[in-house]
Amino acid sequence: MADFDLNRADPDFKHAVAGRPGAENISRCYACGACSARCPVGDLNPEFDPRRLIRLVVLGLKEEVLSSPLLWFCSTCYTCQETCPEGVDFTEVLFALKNMAAEAGFFPPSMSAQVDLLRKHGRLYEVTDFENEKRRDLGLPELTEKPEHFQTILEHFQLGPETEA
Amino acid sequence: MSWALFLGCTVPVRNLNYEVSVRRTAARLGLNLTDLPDFGCCGFPLKSLDTKHALVLAARNLALAQAAGHDIVAVCSACAATLAEAEHLLAGDPRLAEKINRELARINLTYQGGVKVRHYTRLLDEEVGPDRIRAAVTRPLTGFRFAPHYGCHYLKPSAIMDYFDSPEEPRSLAELIEALGAEAVDYPGLKDCCGGGVLGVNEDLAQGLAFGKLYQLSRLDLAGLVVICPFCNVMFEGQQKAVAKKHEVQLKVPVFFYPQLLGLALGFSPDELGFKLNRIKNKDLLKAMED
Predict the structure, then answer these.
(1) Is A2 part of any domain?
(2) A125 and A85 within one domain
(3) Residue A77 is assigned to a structural domain of this protein
(4) Chain B residues touching A144 at Cβ < 8 A
(5) How confident is the model at residue A163 (pLDDT cuts 50, 70, 90)?
(6) Per-residue pLDDT tens for A110-131?
(7) Would you state the pLDDT for residue A159?
(8) Do A90 and A16 lie in a common domain?
């Protein structure tokens, strides 16, 4: 992400981001960098820089932001959000950006696997006789799955560009 | 009082030592926990992809608790935060609540708001408190030093957690450890994130985050690290061998769930608290508990 072509920038992008729940305060950012200074992910991987991501959004570099794998490196520790003197909820801003990226078809493969598991089992881990036997040994009650609710709720949930319509 | 026990996906399958300790210690301390078999995923795994669907899944669990007449106690910090956040968002936005209820109507549920969600550690702190725990201890863990790990979602976002403990200078877990007669150690990396949130996306990064804390702790004279979240446990216990190998260091930091230590101090045996399932043993601690 070295050079940017501002002719391709989308001036409405920042408004679209600010329209998402939790990301409303993004325009308050005055680029002090407190978020970046305390980010533990940025500490290990300097390419992950919350202040820089906000600047890219404000500049309207939609494609660069939404296609960047960096979006998914946030550990959701909320340190930036607790630190920001302007009340920008950057962890929530990133959730908004990840939602928009997923709608545009950019998301790590592990994410779609989780959706499949929820549809099938209503849980991230399948519960079989093997699990329930181990639970019985410790005197723990049997677990059941209720996937019907999840199938109904996630009926129209689709990953990829289709959901943008 | 009684609470609906929200186990989440990971604990009832991967951390039976945690679950059995929560159930035994709650019963001993007079906290009545009820199982709601229809509870399912809290919604957190979907939040990155679609916050609205994640919110419906969270609200589904809140609605189930409300129908049964219970507040919720969760044992996973991510579940506790996700469910508490859902209650917070729906309480502050009637139009959003209406929208979510239209989705819930498709599975014959409705949520009217008002279910309080707390983490089991917070429940111990607020409903029992360190003083009453100290009074209930029959086998103090005197002489053992433990490092608390609060994790991120137990304390934050602080606005959603009613600021019950400071994210900058947290005290609740250290006080609960000290109530057992043990020593809670302060250390520079106290507030560091475990990295669990990115394990599925970037293993190097996740292990790098866990390494910082584990390496620091390996150089202190400690009986072990105390966690209260299954994600933190995955990183510090489950990944410890891989982290040591990748960073070419020796690591042997025992990791315990707080209710396991509470259970020991209340007189339960290590077997009753699932200590056999802890992967990195502390023989001195276990030996002291046999006497």
Answers:
(1) no
(2) no
(3) yes
(4) 37
(5) very low
(6) 888 899 999 999 999 999 999 9
(7) 80
(8) yes
A164: in domain: no
Q: Report the complex ipTM.
A: 0.95
Q: Taking CB atoms and an 8 Å limit, are A159 and B23 in contact across chains?
A: no
Instruction: Tell me which residue range forms the domain holding A20.
Output: 8-103
- Token code pair at residue B90: 């729906």
Summarised one tens digit per residue, pLDDT across range B274-289 is 999 999 999 999 999 9
**Of A88, A103, A118, the domain-final residue:** A103
Q: Where are the alpha helices (DSSP H) in chain A?
A: 13-18, 34-38, 40-44, 50-59, 62-66, 79-83, 90-103, 109-121, 129-137, 147-153
* A162 inside domain: no
A94 and A47 belong to one structural domain: yes
- Pair A94, A122 in one domain: no
CB atoms within 10 A of CB B73: 27
A125 and A146 in a single domain? The answer is: yes
Nearest Cα residue to B147 out of B183, B196, B175: B183
Predicted local distance difference test score (pLDDT) of residue B291: 66
A99, two tokens: 């939602």
A146 closest CB neighbour out of B40, B103, B196? B40
Please check whether residues A69 and A33 belong to one and the same domain. Answer: yes
- Name the residue among B194, B197, B195 with its Cα closest to residue B226: B194
Answer yes or no: do A53 and A126 share one domain.
no
Which A residues, 94 through 123, put their C-beta within 8 Å of a C-beta on chain B?
Answer: 95-96, 98-99, 102, 107-108, 110-111, 114-115, 118, 122-123
H-state helical runs in B195-276: 203-218, 230-233, 240-246, 258-265
| pLDDT tens digits, one per residue of B118-173 | 999 999 999 999 999 999 999 999 999 999 999 999 999 999 999 999 999 999 99
Do both A98 and A143 map to the same domain?
no
User: Does B259 contact A at CB distance below 8 Å?
Assistant: no
In the 8-state DSSP scheme, what is residue A143? P
CA distances from B153 to A122, B96, B165 (A): 22, 24, 12
Beta-bridge partner residues of B6:
B74
Interface of A with B in 36-65 (CB under 8 A): 40-41, 44-45
| CB within 8 Å of chain A, chain B residues 144-163 | 152-153, 156-158
B35-71: per-residue pLDDT in tens?
999 999 999 999 999 999 999 999 999 999 999 999 9
Check if B27 contacts A (Cβ < 8 Å). no
Residue B105 has pLDDT above 50, yes or no: yes
Q: Is B107 on the interface with A (CB under 8 A)?
A: yes
Distance from CA of A152 to the nearest CA of B (A): 7
Q: What's the structural domain count of chain A? A: 2
Contact (CB<8Å) A144/B37: yes
- Nearest-CA distance from A13 to chain B in Å? 18
Show the domains of chain B with their CATH numbers: 2-119 (1.20.1050.140), 139-290 (3.40.50.11810)
- Answer yes or no: is pLDDT of A160 > 80: no
